[in-house]
Amino acid sequence: MSTLKSSKQRDAVLANLQSRYDHPTAEDIFLAVREVIPSISLATVYRNLKLLESEGLILKIPTGESDRFDGHTQGHYHLTCINCRGVIDLDIDPGVTLNALPRDFDGTVTSHSLMFYGICPDCKKTN
Amino acid sequence: MSTLKSSKQRDAVLANLQSRYDHPTAEDIFLAVREVIPSISLATVYRNLKLLESEGLILKIPTGESDRFDGHTQGHYHLTCINCRGVIDLDIDPGVTLNALPRDFDGTVTSHSLMFYGICPDCKKTN
DNA sequence: CACAATAATGATAATGATTATCATTATTAA
DNA sequence: TTAATAATGATAATCATTATCATTATTGTG
Structure pTM? Predict the structure, then answer.
């Protein structure tokens, strides 16, 4: 197993993700980090997103379109707006759902992810 | 707006999806339906999956890899096995999570999807 | 400090999943 | 039965993501 070496690109990707509360795609992150490190490559962004996710430092949110990423790993839930396709945080207790797991389930559950679909406050206001 | 015309390909895709309880990819469905309609094209499978989903007859499950599909639309939850990458049904009351929605949320929620991650019974037995 | 080992990078080619195109075929309503 | 048009199969195109590879940066050691 190879040992991690630090890189300013990886630091910048993580810092960007931790500084924002939307849920950007790899492309979004690429564009943002490029303001700070103009030479950064999209491949490096993808590489580091994968690495950071496997380290447990960020979350990947599959959406059916481009994956989105979240720099805040404490349990919380999301809403996907079916109008603007954006993903926002919701303020709900993350515990409730796990309590509902049936006792007789033969597998092992290690985590869960809850996605709500609907209209986000911004889109609701605008329409 | 164009009016739907029936096709045996679309019927076969829907029938296949409704007859099974795994959560196949478009490719899986293509291979299965080809046993019945050897001339069917993968493009036709994708086309009809999209159409059936927009009609609300099937569910698309984003996974971060290939999308998976579900022919049973009554509310229920899934477990993604982090070992075999399969998706199985879980037997939990779908109501609990919606009750947890905060009252002061300014948007509108129309549906939700809960994905558990862990080891499925088959993989747990085998290892 | 100098250096060797190797992880990380940027550029870009390759892949895999999904969608678009287009000529042909099938379904439908009149 | 026919005209209108939705659906198909074949395949090209697109989009997101990953792999490759030569070069650069980081790190531990003498």
Answer: 0.89
